[in-house]
Design goal:
The complex is a heterodimer of chains A (323) and B (261).
Chain A lengths: L17 E3 L2 E3 L3 E3 L8 H9 L4 E3 L16 E3 L4 E3 L8 H15 L6 E5 L4 H12 L5 E5 L17 H13 L5 E5 L6 H10 L4 E4 L3 E5 L1 E2 L4 E2 L5 E5 L4 H14 L4 E3 L6 H9 L4 E4 L2 H5 L3 H16 L17
Parallel strand pairs in A: 3-4, 3-16, 4-7, 7-8, 8-9, 9-10, 10-15, 15-16
Antiparallel strand pairs in A: 1-2, 5-6, 6-14, 11-14, 12-13
Helix pairs in contact in A: 1-2, 2-3, 3-4, 4-5, 5-6, 7-9
Chain B lengths: L4 E10 L4 E6 L11 E6 L3 E6 L7 E5 L3 H7 L6 E8 L10 E7 L3 H13 L4 E7 L8 H7 L2 E6 L6 E2 L2 H6 L8 E6 L2 H14 L3 E4 L15 E2 L2 E2 L6 E3 L12 E3 L5 E3 L2
Parallel strand pairs in B: 7-8, 7-11, 8-9, 9-10, 11-12
Antiparallel strand pairs in B: 1-2, 1-6, 2-5, 3-4, 3-6, 12-15, 13-14, 16-17
Classes of the chains: A alpha/beta (323), B alpha/beta (261).
């Protein structure tokens, strides 16, 4: 039905599979939360287009309509968004994840369920609910920059709070837990240590940057309805690479590196600083759903040129280099 | 870069009691019939709107909800923003007669398509449906284009009494020598879809869904495996065969699937 029908993998001596908290990914590219992860049909389409894993849109206990439009805009060097964590609620997402799992299991593509809550307590409740769908991994979004005044302090901004959320989620599920961190902190390594000490099985980094602000200079208003919004895309990549490096040096758990990855070259950079997998989000805008297959092909080219047979042969190689 | 371009409203025309046309101080020569732009009312919201004319950018809008009501309160000289064009539009079959079927505010993109069909010398019939004679938009504009017109009203106050999809059945061109291009309420599109499949008529239907980004990354407009913003809004009838959501469900702002009508 779709143009992106699965092509048979071209035989290659290069193995780009990855293992994330015991879960096998056929390749290290993962659809990032917040992009296309609302319905199982589209997640299946993304997997068929070449993603090695798919992450759902963050869901909360109750449905959230999010903010009015404009919610997502291209500002040139990247995107800016203030969607406001709109989601149909955990009950609906349980069904979407079940349906996605059923279709993705034969492809060997795992499903990562992203969850969000307004209180530390509710994080545990959402984790328990979502576990009914048996996602392969749970990603805990404690780092959305588009939060109401009530939660102006992100959970990810404070090591103690980040640890408490992690602990609460871990108490409510047996599924491996990734905690998604924010770049908008002074010392991301400190937060990483806190969530790992609290039991996180892995880390996803980074969430979008900011919030940022873009004005429409004709009307003197912010272009986003919410005013400020999280900045993502190529402009944020150098910050993401530095955060992933800081985290990989601080803790010994797998990291899903997210932030502006658009090409195979970008994925190599993330793996060199220690990433196990790479998230792809905004790049779907720049290169379409084909971006997953393209990044994998470009990654393979790099590995062939350098004589690498597997990702582990160069993972973290740059970590040994003194900056 | 696709930040909204802020421009002024150059002209406003009333088409019917509830349908109004806005001409903006903007040109989108690359827009194709059936493509849409995201129209921003600062401080209100931003919604997809089909292009009724690309130069100058013209939108024909029915007052149906808070956004379109706010738009209808705008005056000449007021500022609005737009970005686009987005999506897949209509593509005319050059060897088929063109039968354009419009319900309500679906008329805008079909007027754009009719101008293109006439320019290319494709014999064109436009079928317009509305509740009453007072609700039929663009009748004079289509007459001026020189296309054949089929009019249908629910109350019979003008033209055929009944749905426009019944009116075209009576027409001699409703056969496989023609191609149907339709835009309007989804129940009408479901009827057109059935007709096209029963009579082996090639068809293209323009659909509408709640959208956020408009450029294929938020997933909010997902309809089965399609993204309406990018794979559509215009679909070939074959693409709509057997879909769970076509004619039945659309997503709300939360992403929940809600029944249509």
């Amino acid at each position: 039905m779709k143009p992106e029908t699965a092509k048979p993998e071209t035989p290659s001596a290069v193995d780009i599979s990855a293992t994330l908290c015991g879960v096998r990914l056929p390749n290290p590219t993962v659809l990032t939360s917040g992009v296309l992860g609302l319905s199982h049909e589209i997640m299946v389409r993304v997997a068929r287009a070449g993603a090695g894993g798919v992450t759902t849109k963050s869901c909360s206990l109750k449905p959230r309509p999010g903010y009015p439009n404009p919610t997502i805009l291209d500002w040139g060097p990247g995107l800016i968004n203030a969607v406001g964590l709109s989601n149909p609620g955990v009950e609906v997402m349980v069904e979407e994840i079940r349906a996605a799992k059923e279709e993705l299991a034969p492809l060997g593509v795992p499903v990562i369920a992203s969850i969000f809550a307004e209180t530390i307590y509710d994080f545990g409740t959402v984790a328990r609910f979502i576990s009914e769908a048996q996602p392969d991994l749970i990603e805990v979004n404690i780092s959305c920059p588009n939060i109401d005044d009530r939660y102006r302090q992100m959970f990810a901004a404070n090591p103690y709070v980040a640890g408490q959320v992690t602990r609460r989620v871990k108490q409510n599920t047996d599924i491996p837990v990734l905690v998604k961190l924010s770049p908008n902190v002074t010392d991301v390594a400190q937060i990483a240590r806190a969530v790992v000490e609290a039991g996180a099985d892995g880390i996803t980094a980074i969430n979008s940057l900011g919030p940022g602000l873009i004005l429409d200079i004709e009307t003197c208003r912010p272009v986003l309805a919410h005013g400020t919004g999280g900045v993502s895309g190529p402009a944020t990549r150098p910050i993401a690479v530095r955060c992933v490096r800081d985290i990989c040096q601080a803790v010994d758990v797998p990291v899903v590196a997210v932030g502006g990855v658009t090409t195979g070259r970008d994925s190599v950079e993330m793996i060199l600083v220690g990433a196990t997998a790479v998230g792809i989000g905004s790049a779907v805008y720049y290169r379409g759903m084909a971006v997953f297959r393209q990044v994998c092909e470009e990654l393979r080219d790099y590995m062939e040129r350098h004589g690498y047979g597997a990702l582990k042969e160069f993972r973290g190689r740059a970590a040994a280099i003194r900056f | 870069m696709t930040l909204p371009h802020t421009v002024r409203i150059r002209e406003i025309r009333d088409e019917t009691r509830t349908i109004r046309t806005f001409v903006l101080d903007a040109e989108v020569p690359e827009a194709e019939p059936g493509q849409f732009i995201m129209l921003w009312l600062p401080g209100v919201d931003e919604k997809p709107m089909s292009v009724a004319c690309p130069t100058p950018l013209t939108l024909t809008v029915a007052r149906v909800g808070p956004f379109t009501t706010a738009l209808c309160e705008r005056r000449v000289g007021d500022q609005v923003g737009w970005r686009g064009p987005y999506g897949r539009g209509f593509s005319l079959h050059k060897d088929q007669l063109a039968l354009l079927v419009s319900g309500g505010c679906g008329v805008g993109p079909l007027y754009f398509l009719a101008t293109q069909a006439v320019t290319r010398g494709i014999p064109t019939t436009v079928a317009l449906g509305a509740r009453t004679a007072l609700d039929l938009p663009y009748v004079e504009q289509f007459r001026a284009l020189g296309v054949d017109l089929i009019l249908a009203t629910d109350d019979g106050s003008l033209g055929y009494k009944g749905p426009v999809t019944d009116a075209i059945l009576q027409s001699a061109i409703c056969n496989s020598q023609s191609a149907i291009y339709a835009c309007g309420p989804e129940p009408m599109l479901v009827a057109v879809h059935r007709l096209c499949r029963e009579r082996a008529i090639p068809g293209q239907l323009s659909l509408e869904r709640y959208m956020k980004c408009g450029f294929g990354i938020c997933g909010q407009c997902a309809m089965d495996g399609y993204l309406v913003c990018q794979d559509g809004p215009v679909f070939d009838v074959e693409q709509l065969d057997g879909l769970r959501d076509f004619g039945r469900a659309q997503r709300s702002a939360t992403g929940r699937r809600l029944p249509i009508r």
